[in-house]
Design goal:
The structure is a homodimer of 403-residue chains.
Chain A: H1 14-18, H2 23-30, E1 37-38, H3 51-64, H4 78-89, E2 100-103, H5 106-117, E3 123-127, H6 132-138, E4 144-148, E5 150-151, E6 155-156, H7 158-166, E7 173-176, H8 190-203, E8 207-210, H9 226-229, E9 234-239, E10 251-254, H10 260-271, H11 276-287, H12 290-316, E11 322-323, E12 331-335, H13 342-353, E13 355-356, E14 358-359, E15 374-378, H14 384-402
Parallel strand pairs in A: 1-13, 3-4, 3-7, 7-8, 8-9
Antiparallel strand pairs in A: 2-10, 5-6, 9-10, 11-12, 12-15, 14-15
Helix pairs in contact in A: 3-11, 4-11, 5-6, 5-10, 7-8, 12-14, 13-14
Domain Aminotransferase class I/classII large (chains A, B): 48-393
GO molecular function (chains A, B): transaminase activity
Protein name (chains A, B): PLP-dependent aminotransferase family protein
Chain lengths: 403, 403
C-alpha cells in the first residue's frame, strides 16, 4: 500500500485488503452538492434539531459540573440511564438502569455486541436485505452469513429462521430491525414478533434488535418491540440519533446485567467511555421534559412528509411501481418495473433532475436480487416541495427508460 | 453466561470468555470514594478545564450551525484539521489536512489501526511495560506479543527491536509512547528515536506512535516525535484529552493519505463519525487562539505538581526508592525496595491513609517482572497539599513494611 525506497510494502490485515468504502460514503459525498434534493441518506432533518434548548442545556452542564469534561465510568451516568428507563416504558419495555449500557451511538452498540458474540468465521443470521452498517461491522470477522427472505410489508421471514434453527444452525446472533426497517420501511407483524421472540428463547440464540426508528411512529397503534416480549435473549439497541440528533453520538443497549462487565471491557478498548458532556446534556434535556414534545413534533413533521411522498409516488411513478406505507421510520422502499436499470436511473436523476436516492441493491447480502429493481427513498430530510419535485423528476426518468 | 429455562447458555466469543475487567475500571471505582487522594488514574485536573470558554464556543456552534448536530463525513471537519496541522508544527511535524484522520479519542485511533493492520494471532511488538489500553485493544486478536525491555530513563530498548527485526520477525506494528511514557514517565533519547525511525523505514514495519503527552512538556527543550523523523512508516496518534479535556472525545491520527479510505471503513463501522458538535467546538476554541495559553497554564501547573511530588518522594520515601524526573506527561514511576509487597501497600494506603496509586505490575506484559516492586504515581490530578500528604502516607507504609 505504501512503499519505502527499498520497495517494502505496508501489509494490511487480509480482510482490510479486500475492504471497499461503503456506498454510504459515496452518497455522503454526492449529496454534499449544493442544491441537490437528497432522498439518499437516512438523515434526520437538521432544521428540526432543538438547537437552542440543547445549547442551553449543554452550557448549563459545562458551567455547573467540572466533571462534565472529565473521563468517567459508564456507571456514573445514572441520571441519563433513569431517563432512558422511563423512555423505554413507552415502548412497553420494563428494565432497570443496571441493564442499560451507554454507547457512542447505536452503531457502536451493534459493533460491541458483534465483538463479544462472534468468533472469526462464525455464523450470523440476518435478512437478505438489511442495514449496511451491520454488514460493515461483520466484515473483519469474515463470517458465514445465514440469510432469510424478507417481506416489504411484514419484514423478516421468521418461518425461514425457524427452519434454519431447527436444522441445527446456531448462529452467534440474529440481527433484525423490528420497526421502520432500513431500507424496507417495514415493521414486523405481531405474529412474527411473537414467534421470533419464542425462537430466541427456545434455541438460546441472542437477537440484536436494532431500534432507531421505534419512536418515529406515524400510526395510532405501535406494536411492542421484541425486547418487550423476551427480556433475556433479546439485546435491544436504542439511539438518540433519530429522535434527538446524531451529533450527540449517544445510544444505549438494554442487555442482561451479567453482560455488563464484558461489555465494559470492549467499550473501554474502543473509546474509553462515552462523552460525559454529551451524556449530561442529553440527561438535562430529558429531565426538563423536552423530549416528549420533540417526539410529537418529529412524528407530525415526518409523518406529513411520508404522506406527501406517497402521494407524489402515486401521482408520478408508473402504475407498475409498488410501495408500502411505512408505519415507522424514514424510508419508503419502491419496487420498480423490471425494465428499470437502477444505476443508470440514479446517474440521470442526479445529473438531469438534481435528485438522489439509494439503489436497493446496496443493501443486499450476497446472492440476493431483491434490491435489483428497487430504491430506498428517505422522506425525513427534504421539504414538501422538494419531495414533490424530486419524485416527479424520478418518475419522468423511469418513464423514459420504458423506451 | 445467561441461561434459559431449558438450560441453554449464552455463548460468547472465545476471547471474551477469558476477558477480565481492566484494573483501570477497578481503580475508577475505587477512586470514586469521596475524599480519597488519588495518584491512581491518569486523569487531567478538572479544575483546569476551560469550561467557561468551551461553553461559549459550543453554544455559538450550536446556535449558528444547524449541521453541528447532524451526521457528517470526516472530510468536512476541515477547519479542525487545519488547526491540528498548525498545532503539529510545534512538535516539529509537517503534515497536511489530508493526512489527518479524526477519531473519538486517541483510544479509538489505536483500536482502528490495530483492526486495520493486525491479523488474528498475528505479531505485535511492544515494550514489556506499556499502556494497558493498548493491550486491551489487542486482546480479541490473541496476538503473539514480541516484547522488548524498557528503561525507566530512556525508554524502549531499540537495540532489542533491531535484533528481533534482523532475526526475521515482521510484526504487524510496533507500539510506542515516545514522550511521557505511560506508566514510566520516560521520554526516549534522541539516539533511540533516530534509530527506531530508521528501523521502521528499513524493515517496512509501521510504528504506532501514541503521543498524548508530547505537549505536556516541563523542560525548555523538547525532542521531536518519531513522526518528525520518519513521515511514512510512523502513524502518529494525538489527543485532546490531556491538553484540553477528555470529555470532548476527540483525537487524531497522522497517516499516509493512501490509508484514509481503509480507515474510514473501520471508523464508520465503529461509530459512523466523530461528533460534529464536539469537533466544531474544539475547532472554534483553537481558532480563537485559546489553546496556546491553555497549554502554557497546564505546563506551569502540572510542572509545579511534578516538582512537589518529586520533592515529597525525596523527603518521605526510603532512600532505596528510585525515581526519574519525567520531562513530560503525568506520571512518576517509583521503583521500590524488594521487601515491599505492592498489593498490600495499595490496600493499606487506601484504607489507612486514604490515598491510591497504581501497582506497577498492572502495566506488565506476560513474563515481565519489572513492575513487581514499582508504582505509577499520577501528579496532575491532586493539589500540592494532597501530594505532600499522600506521598508522606505512602512513605510511612513502605517503612512499616521494612519490618
Amino acid at each position: 500500500m505504501t512503499t519505502t525506497k527499498n520497495g517494502t510494502t505496508l501489509r494490511l490485515a487480509n480482510w482490510a485488503q479486500q475492504a471497499a468504502p461503503s456506498p454510504m460514503q459515496d452518497m455522503l459525498a454526492l449529496t454534499a452538492r449544493p442544491g441537490l434534493i437528497s432522498f439518499g441518506l437516512g438523515l434526520p432533518n437538521q432544521e428540526l434539531f432543538p438547537r437552542e434548548a440543547f445549547a442551553e442545556m449543554s452550557g448549563k452542564v459545562l458551567r455547573e459540573k467540572p466533571s462534565s469534561l472529565q473521563y468517567g465510568p459508564a456507571s456514573i451516568a445514572h441520571t441519563l440511564k433513569s431517563s432512558i428507563v422511563e423512555l423505554m416504558k413507552r415502548r412497553g419495555i420494563t428494565c432497570t438502569a443496571e441493564q442499560i449500557f451507554l454507547t457512542t451511538g447505536a452503531q457502536q452498540g451493534i459493533n460491541i455486541l458483534a465483538r463479544l458474540l462472534l468468533e472469526p468465521g462464525g455464523q450470523v443470521l440476518t435478512e437478505e436485505i438489511t442495514y449496511t452498517g451491520f454488514l460493515q461491522v461483520l466484515e473483519p470477522f469474515a463470517p458465514e452469513l445465514l440469510t432469510v427472505p424478507t417481506d416489504p410489508q411484514t419484514g423478516m421471514d421468521v418461518d425461514a429462521v425457524e427452519k434454519l434453527l431447527a436444522s441445527g444452525k446456531r448462529p452467534a446472533c440474529i440481527y433484525c430491525i423490528t420497526d421502520g426497517h432500513n431500507p424496507l420501511g417495514a415493521s414486523m407483524s405481531m405474529e412474527k414478533r411473537e414467534k421470533l421472540a419464542q425462537l430466541a428463547r427456545t434455541y438460546g440464540v441472542p437477537v440484536i434488535e436494532d431500534d432507531p426508528y421505534g419512536f418515529l411512529s406515524y400510526e395510532d397503534v405501535s406494536l411492542p418491540p421484541l425486547k418487550a416480549l423476551e427480556s433475556e435473549w433479546v439485546f435491544y439497541v436504542g439511539s438518540f440519533s433519530k429522535i434527538l440528533a446524531p451529533g450527540v453520538r449517544i445510544g444505549w443497549m438494554i442487555v442482561p446485567e451479567e453482560l455488563m462487565d464484558k461489555l465494559s471491557i470492549v467499550k473501554e478498548s474502543y473509546d474509553i467511555n462515552t462523552a460525559n458532556w454529551s451524556q449530561h446534556s442529553v440527561a438535562a434535556y430529558m429531565e426538563a421534559g423536552l423530549l416528549t414534545g420533540h417526539l410529537e413534533l418529529l412524528r407530525r413533521e415526518y409523518g406529513a412528509r411520508r404522506d406527501t411522498m406517497l402521494q407524489a409516488i402515486a401521482e408520478h411513478f408508473p402504475a407498475e411501481c409498488q410501495v408500502e406505507k411505512p408505519s415507522n421510520g424514514m424510508f419508503i422502499w419502491a419496487r420498480l418495473p423490471e425494465f428499470v436499470d437502477v444505476p443508470t436511473l440514479l446517474r440521470d436523476a442526479v445529473e438531469q433532475k438534481g435528485v438522489a436516492f439509494f439503489p436497493g441493491q446496496a443493501f443486499a447480502t450476497e446472492g440476493s436480487e431483491m434490491g435489483k429493481h428497487a430504491m430506498r427513498l428517505n422522506f425525513s430530510n427534504a421539504t414538501h416541495e422538494q419531495i414533490q419535485q424530486g419524485i416527479r423528476g424520478i418518475g419522468e426518468l423511469i418513464e423514459k427508460q420504458r423506451g
